[in-house]
Amino acid sequence: MTGPGCVVCVPARNEAAAIPALIAALGRQALAEPLRVVVVANNCTDGTAAILRELVGGEARLALRVIEVALPPGHAIVGVARGLAMDAGAAWLREEGMMEGVLVSTDADSVPPPGWIGAICSAVAAGAEAVGGEIRVAEDPAHPAPPWLRGTLDRVARYWAAVRALAHRLDPVPHDPPPRHGGHTGASLAVTLAAYEAAGGVPPLASDEDNALVAAIERGGGRLRHAPEVWTTVSAREDGRASGGMAEELRMWRRLAETGAPLCLPDAAHWEAVFRRRRVLRNALGGDIDAAARRTGADPTVLRAIAWESVNDIAFVARAEPVLPALVACREEITAATLALEGMTGEFSCPAVRAGRGESAPA
User: Fold this and answer.
1) What confidence tens digit (pLDDT) does each residue in 252-285 have?
2) Domains by residue range for the chain, with CATH
3) For 62-72, how does the pLDDT look when each residue is reduced to its tens digit (9 = 90+)?
4) Phi, psi (rounded to 5 degrees) for 317
5) Which of 8, 157, 201, 207 is least surrounded by Cβ atoms within 10 Å, i.e. has the fewest?
6) Mean of the pLDDT values across residues 123-150?
């Protein structure tokens, strides 16, 4: 497959054990030309960079650049490392004159399928400035996932599917229609070079730098697509490299399973309020801003100023939401919250119910 020039950008810290599988998976991408890959090996003490250099000669389908850095205390954080990798990828695209190229972020323990890059390129060709990928926990036949993990993953997937179904009912957006997932983390996040540069790059945060980058792109009016064909697997390790990441979530789920404590997430009423307010904002752009201010509790002068500087409804919603009164979420046990959400939309994610309606269960 051919498409816009792509660079896969990987921050890696002591990933000698995990990164060969990623490199092999990138070498299997169905592309007509070698895939550019840049790895920033930051503060590594396990030979990550040396292993990568050994792999260069064995992967003719890859053009691989390895950058070794030693970040000082306070700067050895995921936002800085990911930013260095994506900045290096952006420089590579500019160096080759690929100003319409795409930066693809992933993590060292990710193993994407062969169609990953092709699906990303298709979403960009369809108009997306950012493409999020679904994150799936890798299945290891030799070490199957414990029942508590599989059960929690299923419950969490069903909850978020119900949240997305409600979002589509109350505030549908044409650039991200169903079927879609909800993932746009650093393990699978692609952005056009233009959108990346307009957003100012990756914020140097200790956690949540990926969501902050997406938020900046949306403030500029960029379209985020959660294409169902874009996904990758990650390991089920609980010793992650970044705070607030998947490993931390897994540790929390384990504690809940071991103690029998409930997993609680925002209730259905919270999401209904969020999506109804977004629809009010979206409809207000080019319409009655003062009426929208009254309905949302915003300062009309502030809202008018935001409308003036917003290039489209995506930008207006992204810029306006932070200045509105906070919507404080009540948390509810996940199964009860999911059933309430499904009751609002009539979209039941239970496999038996969906199979009876001729639909497949969500991944």
Assistant:
1) 878 888 888 999 999 999 999 999 999 999 999 9
2) 6-259 (3.90.550.10), 268-323 (no CATH)
3) 999 999 999 99
4) -65, -45
5) 207
6) 87
Please, what sign has the CA dihedral across residues 274, 280, 214, 199? negative
The predicted-structure confidence for 283-297, as pLDDT tens digits, reads as follows 999 899 999 999 999
Is the bond preceding 4 in cis, omega lying within 30 degrees of 0? Answer: no
The closest alpha carbon to 8, from 75, 44, 58, 59, belongs to 59
Per-residue pLDDT reduced to its tens digit, 139-198: 777 667 778 888 898 999 999 999 999 999 999 999 999 999 999 999 999 999 999 999
Q: What is the pLDDT of residue 38?
A: 97
Tokens 């699978």 appear where? 188
pLDDT of res. 92: 97
